[in-house]
Specification:
The structure holds 2 protein chains of 2 kinds. Chain A has helices spanning 11-42, 46-51, 63-109, 115-124, 130-144, 150-157, 161-174, 177-185, 190-219, 222-227, 236-249, 257-277, 279-292. By secondary structure, chain A is mainly α. Chain A has a single domain (62-292), classed as Orthogonal Bundle (MetI-like fold), CATH 1.10.3720. In chain A, helix 7 (161-174) crosses helix 9 (190-219), helix 8 packs across helix 9 and helix 11 (236-249) packs antiparallel against helix 12. The radius of gyration of chain A is 24 Å and the shape is globular. Classes of the chains: A mainly alpha, B mainly alpha.
Chain lengths: 293, 300
Amino acid sequence: MGIVGNTVRSARFRRSRWVLTAILCVYLVYTLIPIFYVVTASTKTNADLFGTFGLWFSDDFHLRENLVDLFTIQDGIFLRWLGNTFFYALTSAIGAAFFALLAGYAFAKYDFAGKRLLFALVLGAVMIPQTALVIPLYLLFSKVGLLNTPLAVILPSLVFPPGVFLMRVYVEEAVSDEIIDAGRVDGAGELHILSGLTFRLLMPGLATVFILAFVAAWNNYFLPLVVMSTSDQFPVTVGLAIWYASATTGSGGNLLFTVVMAGSLVSILPVILAFLIMQRFWQGGLSAGSVKA
Amino acid sequence: MTRFLAGHRPRVIIGKKIAPYVLLLPFVLVFVAFLIVPMIYAFNLSLHKTALVGGTRFVGFDNYARAFVDPNFWSGVWLLVRFGFIQMPIMLSLALAFALILDSGLVYARGLFRIAFFLPYAVPAVIATLMWGYIYGPAYGPLAQIAAFLSLPKPDFFSENAILGSIANITIWEYTGYNMIIYFAALQAIPADLEEASKMDGASAFTYAVRVKLPMIVPMIIVTIMFSIIGTLQLFSEPYLITNLARSVINSHFTPNYYAYTLAFTAQQYNYSAAISFVLGAVVAVFSYAFMLASNRGTR
């Protein structure tokens, strides 16, 4: 809560307030510089990107042209990548959040055989190196013909162990045993208690897990890099990385740095907007998660 | 066998006993199918060897024996240990300092700072690396431009000595705000009555934050260190993506995950690659466990 009740503001208090704000401003500049660089670079011609100062705009405002290039190069493949990313992230996050809700609820409100072992397994899963999972997944998917299909990215993303952990803690906090017992006395089935009585209470936690799973899936690079082989299935991360590589090695010919920058700008905006709009949810959910941990 | 529940509408049949299993079923299904099964499959792979002549055969722990003395693997681990000792203290202490400052209420515009610091987390690692790759750029990057303007020598962010710092900076940029939010949430959860009647000026607010509040979130700090250790040892995307810019410094076994990736998808050595992944998993477990032991001893 900070010092809400403080009414006597000494000179010393005000001075330290300015000093600390100044310190945070330094880091604020550091945080925003790369994003600002992407914004200015997206508005330049390729010649100006090299020829003018990187952290300011040039006279030739080229944003519209870069965006037109971005969405028309290679028959507008970038829009396809955006669509893929959105589709993969949305389906993964909905599934992952829903499964995490059910599992977290079970861990929080029931005793059952094997509970401790299962929960330890779920937590231990975060230690598994990406390659240890992705390489066998690649081989297994190739056996069943799932390689280079959306399912190859979506199915593994449904497993989101941090979501289970967070939901468990959240359910323990937000749902009292009294509500559940009252439901039982009224003769409601267990699933009916969850869907009817407690679901509303769980919404903030569910939103938090959804957002975290969505961001994880939106930002995923390694899995699609391995399991997707044709350009029309790539998410933005894989596609842009390939454009970037061909721009740096000069093999892309007409692929311009500025287009890659415009692509970066376009692909980070939706997530940033989602975060800003939904901040009430995820901040609430995270703070609940931190009470117990 | 049918059971009738006298005179009622059809009742929900799922009772207290089987409800947890029903609830867990969807998660456990995907957990087994896309985590346990691939792990078992990979472990089985790691016990075999594929040769051009003779096909695949069982070799027991030969691949592990090879991995344990593979300098390419251990050089990657050693690199990440050095990396971790630079990156983690900077990132986590910044995150902690910012969280304490924001929590103390001793700043203007705390909502703005909180959101702005967290924003990089929403930027995919791929794009973060790409952005910093441009900023580091020797020919056109703004830092090189500033150096040229001040007639300083051009900084080389991709040299042997600088590369770790350059990558560390990218990950610090990405994750400081995320850790800060976690600390901040933990600090906010501390009941406010602890600081009742506090007419604090800057100095006593500082003492209060460090002496009273900081110790209370130590468990949370330990959790974030654990996750940072795990994340650090799995570093892949950032070095992989700037390989083109630092060809002479970043090789195919720069980090263990990079090595496993190259082995599998460039050399088609899936068996050995699987063994490398498991040894890396063991290294992660050992580091995490050692840290847990150390922190238990430290907090006792």
